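Side project, low priority. Logging it here so it doesn't get lost.
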Amino acid sequence: MIEKTDARQAAFARRKDAHATGLDQDAQRRLLDWLRPYQGKTLAGYMPMRTEIDPLPVMEAMAELGTVCVPVIEAKATPLKFARWTPGCELVDGTFGARIPADPEWITPEVVIVPLVAFDAAGNRLGYGGGFYDRTLEMLRRTNHTRAVGYAYDAQEAESLPLEATDQPLDAVVTETRTLIFPD
């Protein structure tokens, strides 16, 4: 576990520096391009915290074309649930400070925008360590052909990541300069 802790600390520092540059708009355009084939599918975004790259403009654009939801943590070591989100809906603080809809309507996403701490060129991701997205993607992929796109700054790429058997790979990663697609 020390290896993952060290990898996270280094990645958080790189993400903080990248976040200060304000490159979100370039990445938002790329993310919208990647999502175009999935218009009308239920999309899960996330409410950005700290130095996470901001998906809200993309979520707002996609909400005009279909259903958008955000993750809700109900308890440790459990999959995420997803609550319908619309621009301007009333939000409250959820677990770990993430904003969530005040009156959740639970839905199942078909495409998930995944925040991350680091990613590699093979489509692996390093999250915050709670395993929420890994559990969730594993569960969703058992019954659906759920797609997962990592959303990050280029600076969050790592040459290699400490992986475990439970880590769920991404279908794509979108950054401010590129879109990486990974085969099934």
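Brief comment: The chain has one domain: 2-178.
Revisit when time allows.
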